[in-house]
Amino acid sequence: MAIPAPASSPLVSIPADISDALFHHAVDQSAIAISITDARATILYVNQAFCTITGFTADEVVGRNQSLLSYKSTPKTVYQELWTALSGGRPWTGRLLNRRKDGRPYVAELTVTPLAAQNGGEPHYLGMHWDATEEHRLAQQLTNHKQLIESVISVAPVAVALLNSDGQVVLDNPAYRRIASEMRVAEPAHAVMSALQQSLGEAFHHAVTHRRALSGHELRFERAGGGEARWYACSLTWFEERSTLPDAFYGDDRTDYQLLVMHDISASKRQEEALRLAAMRAMLSEGELNQSLRETLAGAVFQLQGPVNLIAAAATLQKRRAGQGAALDPLAKALADAQAAGEQAIATLQAAMPPEPLEPTGPVNLNEVLRDVLMLETDALLSAGITVDWRPAHVLPSVQGDPAALRNLFRQLVGNAIEAMNVRGWNERALFLRTTAQEGQVEVEVVDTGPGIPEALRLKIYEPFFSPNPSRGGARGVGLSLAQEIVSRHRGVLEIDPKHVGGCRLRVSFPATRAVLQAAEANG
Ligand code: FAD
Predict the structure, then answer these.
(1) CA gap 342, 348 in Å, rounded
(2) 124, pLDDT greater than 90
(3) CATH for 20-136?
(4) I want to staple 115 with a disulfide (CB 3.0 to 4.6 A). Which of 124, 245, 361, 412 is the partner?
(5) Better-scored residue on pLDDT, 161 or 474
(6) What does CATH list as the number for 156-244+252-264?
(7) What spatial distance separates the first Cα and last Cα of the chain, rounded to whole Å?
(8) Predicted TM-score (pTM) above 0.70
């Protein structure tokens, strides 16, 4: 608070009904420390507030120089400025460090005003000051806090961005700017906000409307050009700034800000992913082993079933022939024993069959599934000399499903593509994978540069056990029928692009999780 400097010469005359005594009393009782000095700053008068603040009595200071208040640490230049102004007949306002009578320092907010010389005499000076120690302490504390927060934020390993109510980033830190350059986006905060919106749906709108904090929501960002994906744990909080304008002094004028904090958890996620991949490989090989065991046993049961059926028919015939004496007929008994032994063998084989695995369903990120598939198929792709163009959507909503089945689906489609291109003499060997999200759907495109599927066979290839190239083992035909079954189970659509030339282009789309939930809600 600066004390307003009075005019150096009186502009208004004092009304007659205000006596000199009243005027003197008013000055004496003023809450501001007042002193009047001569031209050399020798104190002629001090009021009561001056005595209260400094601890001196009037008798102790009158006749002495104002410099008795100096703490002697105020730079000389400050006094020079003060005296330059006063010598020029101008008032001066500033802060000085003063000493009380007991030696304790205090910050004085001082205004000195020259009083025009009267009757040709020397000028006098009017000094007014107040103890600004507490205000100085608070202001300094605020500056210190601000500096502390700024330095913590600038060295913090987490990225911080403050967004105003228009969504503009008004403050950020070096970690945030690093993310911007790594992700090659101008404003990562905008990408995060739309990713949160996509993945949380209604919950995000609810949080925004009710100013609820979102904490540690994990988001995965794919990088253009197939670089390693990045994971961020994102938190969002709201912060209200009260207006500092005077007209909002008694009002409730506030501005809303959103504080976004992004913590890079890519390293731990990658570790987690490596462990998951190892577990998945182990699970897949166990699954494949079980599958082939199931197929072998089913084949054996099928092979046995025929002869056992024949024996059963013969046993029934012989029993009928033997009539009453069937119980004693050795052939009927031998046939019944053979039938029982055959059925026992079938039952034993069936009991040895490993059960079909039951996979839980939940939200699945197809970017992750496809990345897993590419990793699992790396050797096959490399040995077939196939180049891969993998373009994941920057942020992809999840789909509801069985992760293992979806992985099998894309393994099948990628496997088919590899098989189609891995033909002697075939030069065009490129696989293009892309994920996109639009209108509540997640779409995956699998394009190969193989020979393609002739138009006449496009419907037939979905039939089980049909293969366009039986000579090559027929996996492609079987694969597509299996793939179709998995896609249908996930309420998706699998289609072959009929217009595509120069290979095969498959499009698989699924409803995004939010759409799935909403449809379920709508259906009651
Ligand atoms: P000083 O020798 O007093 O002066 C420092 C510099 O000021 C000198 O180098 C000189 O250039 C200039 N100077 C000093 N006296 C004059 C003069 N008469 N004419 C022109 N230039 C001059 N100081 C405080 O520390 N605390 C106060 O609360 C305070 N209140 C004041 C109130 C009034 C009304 C006035 C007129 C002055 C006040 N001063 C106050 C200033 C004080 O008089 C001293 O100038 C200051 O304390 C420095 O003292 P010093 O002994 O260190 O140096």
Answers:
(1) 10
(2) yes
(3) 3.30.450.20
(4) 124
(5) 161
(6) 3.30.450.20
(7) 66
(8) no
